[in-house]
């Protein structure tokens, strides 16, 4: 499974340490894990110590358009199965990103002779699942 974690806090505390522990567990379970966070944050340093891939996103505030665009590009590039966020600021940015990507699904070719709803499960378009804790 391809999992994208987001964290907007520049400091590190309980929720950030919990996220690191979850990412380590997911990595041990052979999932692909990526952390989107501020480039200069302490969680970025901690994640890199544990060999977790870190991608910088500005996360300046809850309504920061450059953060939405950066996260949007990241989601389009990684196409994660799941996006997990732990704080209010990054969950707001994720919600705004999701609103701009509501059209994004994997789809079957236009020549497909049957409706995607009646297609075999493995051929159906795959929608992104989002979880904000």
TrEMBL record:
Name listed for the protein in its UniProt record: Glycosyltransferase family 4 protein
Entry-linked SUPFAM superfamilies: UDP-Glycosyltransferase/glycogen phosphorylase
Keywords annotated in UniProt: Transferase
Transport in keyword set: no
TM annotation in the entry: none
Span of domain Glycosyltransferase subfamily 4-like N-terminal: 12-97
Presence of keyword Transferase: yes
Database matches in Gene3D superfamilies: Glycogen Phosphorylase B
InterPro entries per record: Glyco_trans_4-like_N
One Pfam family of this chain: Glyco_transf_4
A molecular function (GO) term: glycosyltransferase activity
Species whose genome carries this gene: Salmonella enterica
